[in-house]
Design brief:
This protein has a domain of 35 residues. Helix content is 45%, strand content 0%. It has 60 residues and is an all-alpha fold.
Length: 60
Amino acid sequence: MEKGLWSANDFHDVAKHLARIQGHQDTISDIPGSGAISEYYNEKASVRELDGYLKILGGA
């Protein structure tokens, strides 16, 4: 809180950094989602044509 790190990603990065400095690399790997392959790993984002975006942005 003192450093203004409000997101979980910031907290995770700081925890990994501090663990690495102190030689506790195994500690972070025990946190769920910190290295395990997610069930969503193979999900694919939908792909759309660019025409709609170009019209909105004024490039078409």
